[in-house]
User: What shape does this take?
Amino acid sequence: MTRHTLLVARSVTHTGGQDAMHELAADVAHALGEPVRACFLDGAAPSLHDALDAAQAAGALEIVLLPTHLPPDRYLDVWLRRAYGDWAATRTDTAPPPQVSVGPPLATQPSLVTAVVTALRQPMTPLSGNPGPFRSPAWSTITGHRRHVLVCRGPRCTAYGASHTADALAEHLGAQGLGDDDILLTQTGCLFPCNLGPLVVVHPDDVWYTHVDQDLVGRIVNEHLVHDRPLPGHAVRRR
Assistant: This one.
């Protein structure tokens, strides 16, 4: 039986944290001699849905989901199961489906205590108290942006492809030469109307775009953000 393991993490807001998860997966794969990949419930790529698709496409007959968040996180445990349930319900055109199971959270493993004790027995690095500037005059200034664009990266929007939406927005804005002083792009946690995701919100216009795929991103940028014309039929205002 071909087994694939997915190390499932929560949102990692910086690239270094994402890289660390992928490096951990590579190291575990080397130790096990079988496929291991990192994925994320929200805020980063690949999503759990995309990782499950990739494992199945690679011929996995068994997939193990291993929660990796420290400390133990009920949110991760619950949403891992919900996300898998949605994946299984929406992948009905493939047969036979792989056997999917969930492993015990990394945070509950007794060997974690050993790892902490081992770290504390290593030589320590004194801190100088001056690692770099914590405050700067530049960080007291709000950018002069005309619009603030929010991209929801909650677990449902992430499952629906929000990582691709966010990447496409950044690419289209860059192609138009629009930086933070024009359009401030921010990825957020859950914005609430999850069934309508991926969600993109444009302020101060208070325009909510729903089900935003990469094609719609181009129209939002070219028509709304460049030419001040919200898209009819796609722009949904709050009730």
